[in-house]
Input
Amino acid sequence: MINKELIEKAFEDRSLLNDEQVQQAIKQTIASLDKGEIRVCEKNGDTWQTNQWIKKAIILYFPICNTKTMKLNDFEFADKIDTKKDYLNQGVRCVPLAIARYGSFLAKGVIMMPSYVNIGAYVDSGTMVDTWATVGSCAQIGKNVHLAGGVGIGGVLEPVGANPVIIEDHCFIGSRCIVVEGVRVCEGSVLGANTVITQSTKIIDVSADEPKYYKAFVPKNSVVIPGSYTKHFSCGDFNMNCALIIGQRKDSTDKKTSLNQALREFNVDI
Output
């Protein structure tokens, strides 16, 4: 049983990091994260709850670890956190030059092309993290998700109260998309290439007669492409980036349908 109270106290008083029991509680938390026994964020009904004490433990893990040299053939690194190991027994395919940090969780069936998964992240079964995609600290990636080439999923450790990015099951995140700042992309959604969504990005559903606006939330089965809208400034009118929901994936559509196939249904060329 992890002593959460010790972690909370140490977060407020860093002098307690010298205490062996405190260090043990922190290390036990990271080990449990690495095995998927606990996770930073959990779904509760239709909402997600962030376990802030786990984020605090991750932050406290860095000062109790020493920087050391790590070597892989001709590659050399200097870091405080080990990389994950024993992929074969975990049922994870890890292509050379892919790196997942200790304290992240990769479920059975995950495929990592040359990519990066940071501490605290949770990547569920059947998901592909494609070439040069990054999964930031504490990000939550669902089952059978495809993070295409160059996708950037933002991480979050501080401020402690901030929520992580959540990509739910069966989503397809197109090449060079950026999803950051605690944005939630709901189950089955498709993001077209180069879509950027932050906390302040306008997400506009343009599939009906009247537009509907969202912030930091992409509804279930949405098909999303990059867009722009005009904003007036004192020196003139300029286009601002936004994300456009152009329709919904059909229930009859295979959950593994590619991005291009989903977009073809709406006659969109991305």
Q: What stands out?
A: The chain has a mean pLDDT of 93. The longest strand covers residues 236-248. The chain has five helices and 26 strands. Residues 4-61 form a domain with the Tetrahydrodipicolinate-N-succinyltransferase; Chain A, domain 1 fold (CATH 1.10.166.10).
